[in-house]
Amino acid sequence: MFLAACGGVDPNSPLGKRKAAFKQMLNVSEDLGGMLRGRIKFDEQAFVEKAAQLDEVSRLPWQYFEEAPDADKSSARDDVWQEKERFMELARELEGTTARLVQSTVQQPLNPDVLATRVDLVEKACENCHQEFRVY
To answer: Is 13-65+74-133 assigned to CATH 1.20.120.10?
Structure first.
């Protein structure tokens, strides 16, 4: 009740769960990119763990797009619900890029060039969906 009065989002609502999953994806992908771009010290084990975490969290938010949210609180365009098939296609593309990133962490030592390409593809998959379905 207090959240509604403040204009906040109920963390247990579908919208709240989507926002939490997307925030977690952003934080983990920023850490991965940061390691590859020299903003964060590269730690091979941490990279492997974060890649697996990103793959796992990349599969979470889609289940919470079943109901249309309050338009004034969501960053999603109405097209998400009107073009659900296309939206889910882009979601699956993201999942594929995170899975390939994890596959690239299996062989030790890690190849930074391959990892950079994989992280770039993950970032592009996010951007592609944002361009079509996110309100900025």
So the answer is: yes
